[in-house]
Amino acid sequence: RMHGIRDTMPLQQSQKKRNSILILSTVTALCFLAIYTRNRPQSIDAIATDYFPETADQRLLKWGMTLPEVIEHNLADINEPFTENETPLFFHIPKSGGSTAKQYYGVCMHLVTASQNGIMHGHDQDEELQIVNIPPTSLQRFVNVDVSTREGLQRASYLGFGRANVAEVMFSPYLHNAAAVFEAPTYRGRAFGLFRDPVDREISRFYYKRVAEHEDETTYQPDLNFITIAKYSLTGFWEGNAVVRMLADLNENQKPTIDDLELAMEIVRRKILVGLMDRMEESIAIFDQYFGFQPGLNFDEQWYMDCRTNKAFGGANHNTKKKKVDPESGTYKNLARRNRYDRELYSYVVHLFETRKQLEGVDMSHGVGRVNGRVYAVPNDPIENVPPFVSGEEVNEDAGEEDYGLNK
């Protein structure tokens, strides 16, 4: 019997050793976690209350967030004083009010815009920048570039758009590529944009893809007419977190992470004046006052008021076939789950909008931006005297499009 007891003692000692190691490992892990969470807010509430440095030296997040160089240098901070050579850049998130903003600024306000429309009627073959009327008989004026695609931004950069200072507002979904068009420090963009609840946006996109015959094949997907929104929410037809992907400059094969969310939040905080689609008129009023937008050429007050009511705030891209989804349904929860980073970002955007934190210290009394008192180029004539890019280095006159930082 004594021999049997002695045989069991090594087993008992081994088990105690394993338990001690397990306890020690757990305690060590908890200590690391405590240190990590002490320096890095984990919830949206914690971030929202601890995200606003008081001095320029404290801009970066406490856990060391830095911005990509092209965003840092080529886009102005929201609370920075305006300079002469800045172009308002509308960050166009699909199905979030961008079409309404285009109608308002291009049609109602008669501003010179840069979007996808400038290359219609053969203007994609132009070899010089121009301001063109499209349609030719209309009063709508565009720069003859397409800044809604990466390829179009390459061409715009090649033509000198970033230093021509001719668009009164440009619209692009590619914030990083659009920023790269500008030739800092002399020429920069200043960004603003409308944001929408991510689940509502995804529902809208689903119904829009069914009917958008005028769009390209990546957007128009008639096969979606044969499935329900419930099935769509479970399929691989779409990737969630679209806005975080856009702001973090991810491709279709990259999955967003918490680091990408934090980067997106910091870009929004410092570089994009936010508005909300479901508070459109209030947002537009803030944009107009901040940038000092004023109606352009051929302005008629009655036309402007009718245009605001019927074209802009009446819904420029409204799909009457869209159906509501019950927020308590499994479909809604599936859509929410696949947009969890975008939902956190949107909560933060709402916080910025509600508190007006971005505008603290900014004089909004008379419009702080550049107003439209400039001399316009004559429509359909080349824009002459585009200033050369001066950076202290020789300008490469033979550079190809791949040399302009947009060949992603």
Core attributes:
408 residues; alpha/beta; seven-stranded mixed β-sheet; 7 strands; 41% helix; 9% strand; globular; disordered C terminus
Structure description:
The protein is an alpha/beta fold. The chain has helices at 2-39, 44-49, 69-74, 98-108, 150-158, 161-164, 175-181, 198-211, 229-232, 242-248, 258-271, 280-291, 301-312, 330-337, 340-355, and strands at 86-91, 113-115, 131-133, 141-146, 169-172, 188-195, 272-276. The chain has a 7-stranded mixed sheet with strand order 3-4-2-5-1-6-7, with helices on both faces. The protein is globular. Mean pLDDT is 77; it is low at 35-63 and 370-408.
Question: Which runs of at least 5 residues are low in confidence (pLDDT < 50)?
Answer: 35-63, 370-408
Computed over alpha carbons, the radius of gyration is 26 Å
- Helix- and strand-based class? alpha/beta
Tell me the β content: 5-15%
The whole-number mean of residue pLDDT values reads 77
Strand order of the largest sheet: 3-4-2-5-1-6-7
Main beta sheet:
7 strands, mixed
Brief account:
The protein has 408 residues and is an alpha/beta fold. It contains 15 helices and seven strands.
Task: Lay out the secondary structure.
Layout: H1 2-39, H2 44-49, H3 69-74, E1 86-91, H4 98-108, E2 113-115, E3 131-133, E4 141-146, H5 150-158, H6 161-164, E5 169-172, H7 175-181, E6 188-195, H8 198-211, H9 229-232, H10 242-248, H11 258-271, E7 272-276, H12 280-291, H13 301-312, H14 330-337, H15 340-355
Parallel strand pairs: 1-5, 1-6, 2-4, 2-5, 6-7
Antiparallel strand pairs: 3-4
Helix pairs in contact: 4-13, 5-7, 10-11, 11-15
